[in-house]
Design goal:
Length: 342
């Protein structure tokens, strides 16, 4: 009641009423929709440059509000030898530890403060660091990410703390039947570095000291062996940020070619299901035409269901799923794969 009475008294004051009417009438009229013009930004091409130290930088400016950046180094599992098997698994878990200029706490909090996300992964060919961040703050996050990749300190007390994370990843890995099958497949199919697993053995957890990690990084993580690729960033801006880093110009040691050989590996496990893979030698990535042809072939043999265009009457080879369906009435899953290495 008090609020209504006060409003009625204010409405009777002619000065306030007049000012309210004038203020309302002075508001700008909305523009017609036809008057608004949307200007499209010019399309940019991929830019690639090589720094004096041999580091390759390639970028694509697509005006995205989020910049996605990858640091790719030729330091995958195939570069391990008998003295450091599993070290790349330890190395990817060491991402975010202290560098030569910043502590682990500073790296974590500064990247989190700008809303960034830094992850590390490995393949048999490469060690990869992935960074996602708001494009306006990429210079802050990239400063820490580049040091994590190229200038790790490997303090022994921090390296010792990695062991519990490795045991956790190994436990998760063993629950992934497809991952276990792929590791066994590589061990049976290749002779050489490609037979090395992406996961460390249990008895090797904690045996890779800070000195071993430093030696591996010094030998393999160098400027000529690395590529920095970014989407949503300017090439000059990324290149300028890397010029301040003191990186090794050593080309490093190349891997010995791995030979494909016939073999068989069996792993016993509990359960009623069986995972199996039968492979033959494919094509290397240097043969682009054969890689593309095998990729299409694997897609055709692995797909299931009707063809993409049912109105076009073309004969296609039966997929592995269709062949398996004719052989059993029990639950199954079948697909085809094509993996290419250098």
């Amino acid at each position: 009641m008090c609020g209504r009475a006060m409003a009625a008294k204010i409405a009777r004051i002619p000065g306030l009423k007049l000012q309210a009417v004038r203020a309302f009438s002075a508001q700008a009229a909305p523009k017609a929709a036809s008057q608004t013009k949307v200007e499209s930004l010019p399309k940019q091409d991929v830019e690639t440059t090589t720094l004096p130290n041999g580091l390759v930088v390639t970028t694509l400016e697509n005006y995205s509000p989020v910049t996605r950046l990858a640091i790719v180094v030729k330091a995958g599992a195939r570069y391990e030898d008998g003295s450091n098997l599993g070290i790349t698994h330890t190395l990817r878990n060491a991402a975010g530890l202290a560098t030569k200029s910043h502590s682990k706490f500073a790296i974590t909090k500064n990247i989190e403060y700008v809303g960034g996300n830094l992850t590390a992964c490995t393949t048999r060919d490469h060690l990869i660091y992935l960074l996602e961040c708001n494009r306006d703050d990429i210079h802050v996050a990239f400063k820490f990410a580049s040091e994590v990749a190229f200038l790790p300190a490997f303090k022994h007390w921090e390296v010792d703390d990695i062991a519990p994370h490795l045991y956790k990843e190994l436990a998760v890995f063993r629950q992934n039947r497809e991952a276990v099958l792929m590791e066994a497949l590589h061990a049976a199919a290749f002779r050489g570095g490609l037979a090395n697993s992406l996961y460390i053995n249990d008895f090797l957890v904690g045996r890779h000291s800070h000195n071993k990690l430093s030696q591996f990084v010094k030998k393999h993580v160098t400027a000529p062996r690395a590529v920095v690729a970014a989407v949503g960033a300017d090439c000059k801006r990324v290149s300028d940020a890397l010029k301040t880093l003191e990186l090794s110009t050593d080309p490093g040691a190349e891997f010995l070619p791995s030979k494909f050989g016939t073999g068989e590996t069996r792993l016993e496990s509990a359960g009623e299901f069986v995972d199996a893979a039968v492979v033959v030698e494919g094509a290397g990535v240097k043969n682009a035409k054969e890689c593309l042809a095998l990729g299409v072939f694997a897609h055709l043999r692995g797909q299931s269901g009707p063809p993409a265009r049912p109105t076009v009457r073309r004969r296609r080879p039966p997929s592995v799923g269709e062949a398996a369906a004719k052989a059993t009435q029990k639950p199954f899953a079948a697909t085809a794969l094509n993996i290419n290495y250098t």
